[in-house]
Request: fold
Amino acid sequence: MSWESYVQSLIDPGLTSAAIIGHDGNLFAASQSFSYDSEEIQAILPGLEDPDTLMGKSISLGGTQYSIIKSDRAMVIGAAGSKGVCITKTTQAFIIGICDKPVGVGKCTVIVEKLANHLIGMGL
Reply:
């Protein structure tokens, strides 16, 4: 499967946008609706390596400011009104999923985590 196919597997169940980004900040693939600034990604990366530093803070993606509601070694979850973001880390990349109602952060987390577990199982 290509990186683009993996991103599409996040969009099909209902996420509004998604991306897979290497640990170095390089974009592997993103949905057409994924809006970001490379500076936003660079600002988030250190927190993804040490998620404890994100708790009680916020991150910006596509100009939307997400308040961090969960941050641990497995996942970072943020909310901004009716929008949510879930970020997980695999061996080679970070998976970012963005949702809006009616999907909600809970389902977003399940969708992103499922792909992350699949990629980790493949050594990716």
